[in-house]
Amino acid sequence: MKKKRIVIALVITGTGVLTVLLWQGLESSRHSTRQTLCVHNLKLLYSCLKAYAEEHEGHYPDRLANLLTRHGDNPEFLEILICPEIQAIYKHNTGEKHPFPGHPDADTLERLCSYAYVPGYTVDDPPDAIIFYEKKDNHFGKGRSLMYLDGHGAWEPPENWRHGPPNKTLPPEFSGPQPRE
Questions:
Q1: Cβ 48 vs Cβ 66: under 8 Å
Q2: Residue 156: predicted pLDDT
Q3: Tally of CA atoms within 13 A in the half-sphere of 140 that contains its CB
Q4: Amino acid 25: pLDDT
Q5: What does the pLDDT read at residue 111?
Q6: SS3 for 115?
């Protein structure tokens, strides 16, 4: 009888450990998926910028909110302005989808958007310049999504953050570590 209790205790303990390990793997997979979706959001924003530049002699807008005139009535456009990690946290805490107001004004859009836009570029500028980046560390210190002027996006861990391409720097609110000397 005593051996049977020990076996049952071992089975229960083993099941508990296995459950914890599987749950951690599932959470890691979810975070990885949201990181990928975050970069995808930046790629969608970049395609909006490219369309804007084609209509404005190769110049990108002075501010992200200038895209509202073309895309502001589209709820899908407003949805890509929020990092998927923030969406998941908000839904977990409230049970509801993150409320991005319909028809936001320019200041509201830029305040609520998860991504910062670096204005002043044209299509002729260096392709490795960063044009979008995440404003905050939405991924628990594990990295940040970046979008480069050539249209490639990247999710970068903190050790790979840089202050832009040679001879360029990001705005002061980008809080990546200083380059190593």
A1: no
A2: 81
A3: 10
A4: 56
A5: 85
A6: strand
pLDDT of residue 43: 94
Burial 139-152 (b: 16+ CB within 10 A, else e): beeebbbbbbbeee
Q: Which residues of the chain have pLDDT under 70?
A: 1, 5, 7, 9-11, 14-29, 71-73, 160-181
Alpha helices in 56-112 (DSSP H): 68-71, 75-79, 84-94, 106-112
pLDDT at 22: 56
Contacts of 60 (CB under 8 A, 6+ apart): 49, 52, 53, 119, 120, 121, 122, 123, 131
**Alpha-carbon distances, residue 155 vs 30, 49, 58, 99, 159 (angstroms):** 15, 20, 27, 25, 12
Structure tokens at 156: 């970068």
Collapse the DSSP code of 83 into the 3-class scheme (helix H, G, I; strand E, B; otherwise coil) and give the result: coil
Q: What are phi and psi of 78, to 5 degrees?
A: -65, -35
Contacts of 121 (CB under 8 A, 6+ apart): 60, 129, 131, 149
